């Protein structure tokens, strides 16, 4: 069956030149965006109940923009002035660049992994006698905690925000040829909103192994997978599929 409509379970890209725009124009598709999950911040009381005192940490580990936003939001709420000497360990250039929203980049000590936080192992060990705060959501993949334990640095996790299922009830009677998922939480949201969901002729696209596993465990048939060697991005994977079925 040909593909004409796609629903992406994420916010719409701000740039008009996003890969989805090119995909839409090239193949004359309807592509809509709708976050299946959203983030809800905790308050200062919730953080204190975790026995977290920001004063006790010289370094901050940041793995997402949400972590950046909610760390600085809570700093403001708790009237905590982040010292200029604080060092930031960022998972990617995108996260490090986003820090400029809150700090003067050239005046801060910011370390960036080439591909992920594990690239900074030597830098972590250089400051092994210092303490690290790791702001996260309530759901956390085990890879980074396992890495931090392995390199034997003193760190503490601070849950600063929750991932919450969005209300999708207005989509009950809306049909799309492809549903695109980027996290297990998106799959969870689908079935919490529509417990009686049946895939039928809907194609499912998933990004990442954990999302693929969640989809399979939910009984979904996966038609499009990314990243792969041939299709490192979701838009590339979708386009490859469309070129095959839209002949």
Layout: helices, strands, pairs:
Layout: E1 5-8, H1 19-27, E2 30-33, E3 37-41, H2 44-49, E4 59-62, H3 65-77, E5 87-90, H4 93-98, E6 109-112, H5 121-126, E7 131-137, H6 143-150, E8 154-165, E9 178-181, H7 184-193, E10 203-207, H8 209-217, E11 222-226, H9 234-245
Summarize the structure.
The protein is of the alpha/beta class.
Which descriptors apply to this entry?
2 domains, 247 residues, elongated, five-stranded parallel beta sheet, Rossmann fold
Question: What helical percentage do the residues reach?
Answer: 25-40%
Shape: elongated
- Please outline the major beta sheet: 6 strands, mixed
Strand percentage? 15-25%
Low-pLDDT stretches are none
Overview of the structural elements:
This protein has helices at residues 19-27, 44-49, 65-77, 93-98, 121-126, 143-150, 184-193, 209-217, 234-245; strands at residues 5-8, 30-33, 37-41, 59-62, 87-90, 109-112, 131-137, 154-165, 178-181, 203-207, 222-226. It is α/β, with parallel strands linked by helices and 247 residues long. The protein has 2 domains: 5-36 and 166-245, Rossmann fold (3-Layer(aba) Sandwich), CATH 3.40.50; 40-163, Rossmann fold (3-Layer(aba) Sandwich). Helix 7 (184-193) links the parallel strand 9 (178-181) and strand 10. The N and C termini lie close together (10 Å). 29% of the residues are buried. The mean pLDDT is 94.
């Amino acid at each position: 069956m040909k593909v004409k409509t796609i629903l992406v379970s994420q916010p719409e890209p701000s740039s008009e030149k996003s890969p989805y725009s090119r995909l839409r124009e090239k193949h004359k598709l309807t592509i809509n965006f709708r976050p299946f999950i959203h983030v809800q911040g905790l308050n200062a009381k919730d953080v204190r109940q975790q026995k977290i005192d920001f004063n006790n940490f010289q370094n901050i580990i940041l793995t997402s923009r949400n972590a950046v936003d909610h760390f600085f939001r809570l700093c403001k709420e708790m009237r905590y002035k982040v010292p200029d000497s604080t060092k930031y360990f960022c998972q990617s250039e995108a996260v490090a660049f986003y820090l400029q929203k809150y700090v003067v980049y050239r005046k801060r000590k910011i370390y960036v992994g080439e591909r992920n936080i594990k690239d900074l192992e030597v830098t972590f060990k250089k400051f092994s006698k210092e303490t690290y705060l790791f702001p996260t959501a309530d759901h956390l993949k085990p890879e980074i905690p396992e890495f931090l334990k392995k390199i034997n640095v003193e760190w503490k996790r601070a849950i600063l925000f929750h991932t919450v299922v969005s209300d999708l009830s207005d989509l009950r009677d809306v049909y799309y040829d492809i549903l695109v998922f980027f996290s297990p939480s998106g799959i969870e949201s689908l079935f919490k909103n529509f417990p009686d969901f049946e895939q039928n002729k809907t194609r499912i696209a998933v990004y990442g192994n954990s999302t693929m596993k969640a989809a399979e465990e939910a009984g979904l048939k996966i038609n499009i997978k990314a990243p792969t060697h041939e299709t490192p991005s979701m838009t590339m994977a979708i386009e490859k599929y469309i070129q095959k079925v839209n002949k």
